[in-house]
């Protein structure tokens, strides 16, 4: 909101922040339990719990503190770690903004994955087929990816507005259609790298790659921040955003006030797809772990579409919140890699933590019950974002 | 009534059955005590058969026995003279038959007392006749019946005793042979005189003309049937009538929210019959929706945002795609002052306001631009007395600026206070257009569908009210 | 006593109710007809691209009773099947097809499309199309989908949207493999898988029914949680000890005496994993539960109109809990199929989206257990066909076939083959 908030609003925000913090604490605790019970070396020490309690407790502390220490170190412990966190966060922020924008209009875009896949296909294709001057090439490839994502999202909006088809089902199904389409494209001469039979595309031209600034930190991260700024402007400062928020919060009142609800639905889904497409662009044009762009293949975008839903939920569908949530989960991924190599704790723990955080955030009453000091906010809407 | 059936818990007081006080924590306890309820919105599962609906909750064992259940349905159906097809899906049945199923459901549970909540609201006249016959035979069987309605003729036709309620309190008792006029008076009451000191209207030329308008509701029923009327600039035409006689759909059709089946709507000579809400709003129609919580504002939006809800793209508040927050806030501060909106800050969510202040926000929004026509539905419903007076004054002031005002109200107090002419609607048709000083009793009769001339005669024939002892 | 004749209340003309084809039914009939005509036309057009004869091998090389290989001209067969499909479509459009005739016509069209398509795709191939293999593969691929669909049907009929069938599969597959490896017992593995399915379902129930978390969001998060937990435990515990913890026995094939000796159908249908027979049984059980028992009636009532159920004294929340948990039981069995029903071992994200195809089967089957099971079979058929065509060098990318379940579901929810309407209160939390 553009205007100053009153104390009541601030109290609500305080409670929301407390729930988020509480959720992170609870998720870390649950993650610690999971780590301990799945480690035979630690769990066998518990035989001495009553005779020599120092043994199991010490082993537990060592295990948990090593893992989380490594996680923290890998996420924010060094300039390299920060660069990696920002690199991991960029696509999460973009797709999280897309999903969040949908939420604000009351639309559940579960199709970020498919939209990101199309974004990566278009950007990569333009990246390896065209021969353009440096800056122009990147811009063309980015725009191609945005359009592809917007079309894939717009289809959903169109079907919803014209036939009433529920966007949840349509987006879930389109994710797999996009995946199969990618798999097919990678078998066609247009995409298959010359001399290869496995599904992998040529490397993009250097002119199309996002310039690297420091380690993995590249222009893509700032593109993501700019996207967050653009979404903030759209939602808070523009007439279209006003309509999107009104339709999302109360379609009946929006319609009575003369807004065209079906059109807003289509535009919002297209914009949501566009932002998710931008996430795909990040994977296609940004550097990989080896600091050169990764060629298009089946798993290029990973699970960004599903991660994006958790990012949007944790960020309460607000641009700034989404940036923080994206950084948090980006840090979890970056730190997870360090945890794996330093503390021999699998990277997949990050996924567990991510899911648990959002699960707790989604059920503030549960957090309130488990942590008596934390009070659930009066409004518990995760997707409305209007509080 | 939901308290009686255990759906809501009473705040105070008691329910006494056969001399002993009872409380019901849930419907099951109420049913066990012999209370059956025929809900206004049927509690039937549409995709179930009649038999399945009657079985639900009393299946008689873990494995269903449709044969036995079907026989029970047929038994009940023939015993109470209510023919139903046991294997028909409820959604395929006409509303009247669905209601029969709802009644049978209560009877299947051996209810001794049956509560009918506005049972005739959704029925055709034939179905109402059937229902009346059924209620009489149930009474003759020894069942106690509570029949809640606001239709006077039905009351007089069927009741053995009449209790009149207004705003949650009993205001009187009457006998079935009381005249309709007396009942009408008791129902509408002689409430506080809220008459605004308004100058006589100076109607100019016609600004809103409606011709042969026919509108269907979402279920496909014709709810506005061949309505024609004119509203002149500088006058307030009140549409009076009992809730659910097509007024809501009339207002929605005027706005463009529902496309009329046929007929014409002209505002300053321009046809609006096929216009979208955006087009009618831009053409100069102000609209105060009947259900302000659903249609009037976005609860999570700030007061300032709600004040421009239908004007967000106006040049005054936006340049291109960009909203002009400065202008939006200035507008909000000005309206807050002008309409005496009691709020800490215009950036507070509108949901933090009282009902009256919410309505002030809506009226402020609609009246802050030049209007040709103002359509206001139930503008003071659920609003405190102080705010009512203010809202009324503003509506009259808008009239005096030359706007044609169409005011839909079910409150006779409001009709008397504001109307320059009164249009009475009954079942989607026009009963008559009468002057605002028409006696309440006559208006009440007209709202029950009695034409003006007849209503005047009935009223004249019953000068006293010796039947009342409330 | 009242003396007024109720008839005097009549003041309106009587209303006549005509029984005609409803608008929805008409739309469904016309769009189905149009779709069939279009399919037929496409098939007829494709026929001209046929590359010679198409061969169908009715039995594989190892069959005890060898069956002949049938050879048909590719173009003529595809053309004829195309026309047949178009004629059925025209029948739908004309409105002359009624009742059971319509069902049979649709079945005929379905077979014509499948047969014509294979004749076209397999024409000119060096190898005959292995019919027995296709049948057997269909059953194998459909089995977990059937279980998953039953889980979805139970949940959604009770009014709880289940997007987390995938997660239930995954956790159950993992548990079955681990418990099977440790105990060496298939029965223990199956029971553990069911328990795992129920545990995931309990999370779904807890957060949706008690904490009123949006069910779609919840499903997505639960899938992520399942993927995370199984992936973590796999990396941390299972993989380093795979000889002892990831070496579960496999369910053996059980031949049904007599029936399995039937040529062609016998080996495909009656010499399968016990889970296949269990799936058939489960469909019957769920159908009986939902439509023949008190429990089922109550489950369906709380999914359609919870207020109505409440007014007749049914505990809405408890009924929903039960339905979701029983659904978890079936999802657990489906999950077990990926490990002990297959190679015995677990790998990360082994269920690769099957839970979502099961969800598609629920919607395409319009929330009915038997119809959903048939849809699962159809999806299994299509998936198997896709892999067969790859080996036949068919002129069509297998990916297009693999898209079919998803595209068909989109067509269905867009109302193009009739409005597919779920339980009315599906996804709506009940708060009194």
TrEMBL record, chain A:
InterPro entries noted in UniProt: ABC_transp_permease (IPR001851)
GO CC, one annotated term: plasma membrane
GO molecular function: transmembrane transporter activity
KW Heme (keyword) present: no
Pfam families: BPD_transp_2 (PF02653)
Record-annotated membrane-spanning stretches: 17-37, 135-156, 168-192, 212-235, 264-285, 291-313, 320-339, 351-371
Keywords carried by this UniProt record: Cell membrane, Membrane, Transmembrane, Transmembrane helix
Membrane topology, as annotated: Multi-pass membrane protein
Subcellular location: Cell membrane
Protein name listed in UniProt: ABC transporter permease
Source organism phylogeny: Bacteria, Bacillati, Actinomycetota, Actinomycetes, Propionibacteriales
TrEMBL record, chain C:
Main location: membrane
An example Gene Ontology molecular-function term: transmembrane transporter activity
Annotated keywords: Cell membrane, Membrane, Transmembrane, Transmembrane helix
Localization per Swiss-Prot or TrEMBL: Cell membrane
Pfam families in UniProt: BPD_transp_2
Topology term for the membrane: Multi-pass membrane protein
GO cellular component: plasma membrane
InterPro entries: ABC_transp_permease (IPR001851)
Coiled-coil stretches noted in the UniProt entry, renumbered to this chain: none
Protein name in UniProt: ABC transporter permease
Organism: Propioniciclava flava
């Amino acid at each position: 909101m553009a205007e100053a908030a009153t104390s009541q609003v601030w109290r609500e925000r305080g409670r929301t922040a407390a729930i988020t913090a509480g959720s992170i604490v609870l998720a870390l605790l649950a993650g610690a339990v999971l780590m301990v019970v799945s480690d035979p070396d630690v769990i066998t020490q518990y035989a001495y719990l009553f005779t020599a309690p120092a043994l199991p407790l010490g082993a537990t502390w060592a295990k948990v503190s090593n893992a989380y220490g490594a996680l923290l170190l890998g996420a924010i412990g060094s300039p390299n770690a920060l660069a990696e966190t920002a690199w991991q966060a960029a696509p999460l922020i973009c797709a999280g903004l897309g999903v969040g924008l949908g939420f604000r209009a009351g639309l559940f875009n579960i199709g970020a994955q498919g939209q990101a896949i199309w974004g990566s296909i278009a950007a990569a294709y333009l990246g390896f087929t065209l021969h353009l001057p440096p800056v122009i090439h990147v811009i063309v490839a980015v725009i191609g990816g945005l359009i592809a994502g917007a079309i894939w999202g717009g289809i959903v909006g169109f079907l919803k507005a014209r036939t009433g088809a529920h966007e949840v089902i349509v987006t879930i199904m389109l994710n797999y259609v996009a995946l199969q389409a990618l798999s097919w494209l990678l078998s066609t001469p247009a995409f298959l790298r010359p001399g290869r039979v496995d599904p992998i595309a040529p490397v993009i031209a250097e002119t199309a790659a996002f310039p690297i600034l420091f380690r993995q930190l590249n222009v893509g991260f700032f593109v993501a921040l700019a996207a967050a700024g653009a979404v903030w402007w759209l939602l808070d400062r523009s007439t279209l955003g006003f309509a999107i928020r009104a339709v999302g919060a109360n379609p009946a009142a929006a319609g009575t006030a003369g807004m065209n609800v079906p059109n807003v639905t289509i535009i919002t889904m297209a914009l949501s797809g566009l932002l998710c497409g931008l996430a795909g662009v990040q994977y296609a044009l940004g550097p990989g772990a080896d600091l050169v762009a990764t060629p298009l293949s089946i798993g290029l975008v990973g699970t960004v579409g599903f991660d994006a839903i958790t990012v949007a939920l944790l960020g309460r569908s607000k641009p700034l919140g989404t940036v923080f949530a994206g950084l948090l989960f980006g840090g979890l991924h970056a730190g997870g890699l360090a945890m794996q190599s330093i503390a021999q704790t699998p990277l997949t723990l990050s996924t567990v933590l991510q899911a648990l955080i959002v699960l707790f955030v989604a059920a503030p009453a549960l957090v309130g019950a488990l942590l008596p000091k934390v009070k659930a906010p009066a409004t518990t809407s995760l997707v409305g974002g209007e509080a | 009534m939901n308290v009686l059936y255990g759906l809501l818990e009473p705040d105070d007081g008691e329910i006494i059955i056969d001399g002993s006080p009872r409380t019901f924590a849930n419907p099951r306890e109420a049913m066990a005590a012999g209370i059956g309820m025929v809900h206004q919105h049927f509690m039937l599962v549409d995709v179930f058969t009649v038999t399945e609906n009657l079985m639900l909750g009393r299946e008689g064992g873990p494995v269903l026995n449709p044969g036995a259940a079907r026989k029970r349905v047929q038994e009940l159906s023939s015993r109470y003279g209510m023919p139903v097809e046991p294997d028909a899906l409820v959604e395929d049945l006409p509303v009247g038959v669905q209601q029969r199923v709802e009644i049978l459901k209560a009877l299947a549970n051996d209810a001794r007392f049956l509560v009918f909540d506005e049972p005739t609201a959704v029925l055709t006249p034939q179905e109402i006749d059937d229902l009346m016959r059924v209620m009489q035979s149930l009474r003759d069987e020894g069942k106690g019946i509570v029949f809640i309605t606001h239709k006077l003729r039905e009351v007089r036709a069927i009741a053995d005793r009449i209790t009149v309620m207004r705003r949650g309190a009993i205001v009187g008792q009457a006998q079935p042979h009381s005249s309709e006029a007396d009942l009408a008076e008791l129902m509408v009451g002689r409430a506080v005189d809220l008459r605004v000191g308004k100058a006589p209207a100076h109607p100019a030329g016609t600004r809103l003309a409606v011709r042969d308008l026919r509108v269907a509701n979402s279920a496909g029923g014709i709810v506005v049937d061949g309505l024609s009327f004119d509203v002149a600039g500088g006058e307030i035409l009140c549409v009076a009538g009992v809730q659910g006689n097509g007024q809501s759909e009339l207002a929605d059709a005027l706005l463009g929210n529902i496309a009329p089946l046929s007929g014409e709507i002209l505002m300053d000579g321009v046809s609006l019959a096929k216009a979208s809400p955006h087009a009618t709003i831009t053409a100069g129609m102000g609209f105060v929706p009947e259900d302000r919580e659903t249609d009037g504002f976005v609860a999570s939006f700030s007061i300032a945002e709600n004040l421009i809800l239908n004007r967000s793209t106006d040049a005054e508040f936006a340049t291109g795609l960009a909203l002009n927050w400065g202008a939006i806030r200035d507008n909000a501060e000005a309206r807050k002052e002008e309409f005496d909106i009691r709020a800490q800050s215009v950036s507070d969510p509108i949901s933090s306001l009282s009902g009256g202040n919410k309505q002030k926000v809506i009226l402020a929004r609609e009246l802050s631009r030049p209007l040709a026509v103002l359509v206001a539905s139930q503008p003071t419903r659920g609003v405190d007395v102080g705010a009512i007076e203010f809202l009324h004054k503003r509506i009259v002031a808008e009239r005096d600026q030359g706007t044609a005002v169409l005011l839909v109200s079910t409150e006779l107090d409001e009709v008397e206070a504001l109307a320059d002419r009164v249009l009475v609607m009954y079942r989607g048709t026009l009963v008559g257009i009468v002057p605002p000083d028409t006696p309440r009793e006559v208006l009440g009769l007209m709202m029950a569908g009695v034409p003006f001339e007849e209503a005047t005669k009935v009223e004249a024939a019953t000068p006293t009210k010796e039947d009342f002892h409330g | 006593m009242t003396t007024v004749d109720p008839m005097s209340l009549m003041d309106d003309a009587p209303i006549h109710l005509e029984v005609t084809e409803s608008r929805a039914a008409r739309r469904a009939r016309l769009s189905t007809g149009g779709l069939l005509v279009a399919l037929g036309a496409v098939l007829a057009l494709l026929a001209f691209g046929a590359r010679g004869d198409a061969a169908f091998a009715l039995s594989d090389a190892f069959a005890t009773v060898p069956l002949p290989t049938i050879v048909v001209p590719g173009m003529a067969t595809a053309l004829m099947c195309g026309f047949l499909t178009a004629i059925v479509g025209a029948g739908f459009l004309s409105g002359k097809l009624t009742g059971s005739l319509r069902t049979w016509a649709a079945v005929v069209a379905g077979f014509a499309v499948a047969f014509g398509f294979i004749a076209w795709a397999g024409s000119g191939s060096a190898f005959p199309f292995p019919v027995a293999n296709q049948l057997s593969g269909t059953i194998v691929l459909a089995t977990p989908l059937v279980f998953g669909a039953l889980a979805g049907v139970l949940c959604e009929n009770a009014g709880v949207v289940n997007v987390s069938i995938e997660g239930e599969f995954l956790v159950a597959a993992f548990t079955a493999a681990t418990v099977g490896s440790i105990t060496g017992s298939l029965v223990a593995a199956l029971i553990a898988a069911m328990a795992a399915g129920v545990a995931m379902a309990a999370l779904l129930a807890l957060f949706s029914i008690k904490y009123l978390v949006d069910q779609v969001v919840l499903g997505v998060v639960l899938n992520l949680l399942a993927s995370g937990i199984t992936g973590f435990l796999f990396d941390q515990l299972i993989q380093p000890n795979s000889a002892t913890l990831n070496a579960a026995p496999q369910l053996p094939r059980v031949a049904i005496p007599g029936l399995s000796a039937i040529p062609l159908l016998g080996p495909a249908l009656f010499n399968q994993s016990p889970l296949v027979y269990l799936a058939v049984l489960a469909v019957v059980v769920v159908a009986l539960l939902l439509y023949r028992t008190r429990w089922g009636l109550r489950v369906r009532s709380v999914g359609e109109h919870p207020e109505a159920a409440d007014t007749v004294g049914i505990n809405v929340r408890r009924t929903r809990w039960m339905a979701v948990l029983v659904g978890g039981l079936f999802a657990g069995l489906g999950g077990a199929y990926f490990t002990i029903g297959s190679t015995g071992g677990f790998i990360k994200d082994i269920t690769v989206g099957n839970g979502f195809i099961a969800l598609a089967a629920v919607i395409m089957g319009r929330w009915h257990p038997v119809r959903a099971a048939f849809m699962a079979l159809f999806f299994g058929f299509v998936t198997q066909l896709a892999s067969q065509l790859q080996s036949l060098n068919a002129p069509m990318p297998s990916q297009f076939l693999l898209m079919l379940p998803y595209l068909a579901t989109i067509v269905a929810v867009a109302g193009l083959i009739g409005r597919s309407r779920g339980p009315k209160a599906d996804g709506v939390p009940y708060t009194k």
